[in-house]
Amino acid sequence: MRKDISLNNGVVPLHHQVYLVLRQQIEEEQFAADTPIPSEHELSHLFNVSRITIRRAMDRLKQEGWVSRSRGRGTFARRPAAPQAISANLRGIFENLVAMGLRTRVRLEEFGYVPAPPAVAEKLKLAPGATVQRAVRVRFHENVPFSHLTTYLPEDVGRQYEERELSETPLLMLMERAGVKISAADQSVSAKLADTMVAPLLGVETGSPLLWVKRTVFDQNDRPIEYLNALYRPDVYEYHMTMSRVEGENAALWSPDSPRS
């Protein structure tokens, strides 16, 4: 039996926390396909929660195809059919972003010109309260929503295209058509929980873990021309990087490989 699992009695309901832990364990193949997973009674002791909480988590796992129940035999882990995950390589990032934009579908949720929030103004090197274009989009892969994108552009850059074009053409292509030459980006990747606004748009429960990407894009004059705040479903989207061991001055280091043609 595995050691007890501690849950956080915070914003995320306990049954959802149990669901997330069990789903991850199934994804990681911690349960053999031909061996029943622990019973509700055993799981309630393992997670230190009521059997009702365990039952709610198990009912959702069964509904989504993560487990199957066999009378007299028990409950077994399984992997539901799912669309192949969208993969983005951290090298050749601009080419990959455009390619992903062309092979997926986007729905524009919000579009307008607003005063820049302080953090956005700082990222775009604008005066506090300067007007920026703000757009919120949800991107789909095989009709499954996988990313929630909030972009901010300086007003003069945003005015180079119309609202309807943002629903049809990748943003990077729109900017390049307008004569903006993109040269670099500063990006960070971390994690965040889905809030009550993002969760329904991505088809997940409030509190579900999401991949959180923040990116500032620069033109050839080192001017920041886009700030992106993006949230991705980790079950449909992943980042990929190939690395090699190389010898440095004082030690062997891991270094990203050049993109393969």
Structure described in brief:
Helices cover 28% and strands 35% of the residues.
What would you note in describing this structure?
This protein has helices at residues 14-27, 40-47, 51-63, 93-103, 118-123, 155-158, 163-166, 171-177, 198-202, and strands spanning 67-70, 74-77, 86-89, 105-115, 131-141, 144-154, 182-193, 209-219, 224-232, 237-240, 243-247, 252-256. By secondary structure, it is α+β, with helices and mostly antiparallel strands. Residues 87-95 have low confidence and may be disordered. GO terms for molecular function: DNA binding; DNA-binding transcription factor activity.
Which key features would you list for this structure?
261 residues; alpha+beta; Arc Repressor Mutant, subunit A; Chorismate lyase; 2 domains; 6-stranded antiparallel sheet; two-stranded antiparallel sheet; Tscrpt_reg_HTH_GntR; WH-like_DNA-bd_sf
What is the CATH superfamily classification of the largest domain? Chorismate lyase-like
Total domain units: 2
pLDDT average, as an integer?
82
CATH class call of the largest domain: Alpha Beta
Helix/strand class = alpha+beta
Main sheet attributes: strand count, strand direction, barrel closure: 6 strands, antiparallel
**Secondary-structure element string:** HHHEEEHEHEEHHHEHEEEEE
* Corresponding CATH architecture of the largest domain: 3-Layer(aba) Sandwich
- What is the strand tally? 12
Low-confidence stretches: 87-95
Organism: Acuticoccus sediminis
Protein name: GntR family transcriptional regulator
GO molecular function: DNA binding; DNA-binding transcription factor activity
Keywords: DNA-binding, Transcription, Transcription regulation
